[in-house]
Write a structure and sequence with these properties.
single chain, 183 residues, mainly beta, 6-stranded antiparallel β-sheet
Amino acid sequence: MNALTLQWHDAGQDRVQDIYEQQPSKNPSTVRIGRDPMRCDILLSHPTVSGLHVEIFFHNQQQCFYIRNLRSPNPPMIDGQQLVQGEMPLHEGSIIYLGQAKLQVTNVAINNIPATILTPPQPSVQLRHDHHPTTPPSPPEGVYGLECPRCHKVSPVENLQIGCPWCGTSLAASVSVLVAPNN
């Protein structure tokens, strides 16, 4: 799973927050940072930080985390460059200034390995002596499903191309899980 770790000092405490590629947030597919608890996922208390200042998101095609400015009159500084509009890539060691609040990217973990989808072994159909198929036994272990990376509900492997039926998130980054049989 792709993740970025932010570290900062706020209200007299050191803080650390992991940001994942697809995690529940107030704005789907992004993590918003600012002072407003109604619109932001990461809250900073410094008065020079805007209510809704920036958002961080994972760009699938570029395989990189980016930061986007949401407040042009109070642009952030990323690695010494002012980001007036648009977005910039973030890397391990990147320094972000939102007003006078300083955040640092301490770790970036990009998983470039494509997701492996495991499917249960298919039982072979055996023919009886009279050439009629026998009913194959159901697997005792249960069945495989895909756990949504966002809402964590498990759906059938057939939903890989469709997406999560509950929240609509792509299941390309999902985890294959074994669902216990209902006894």
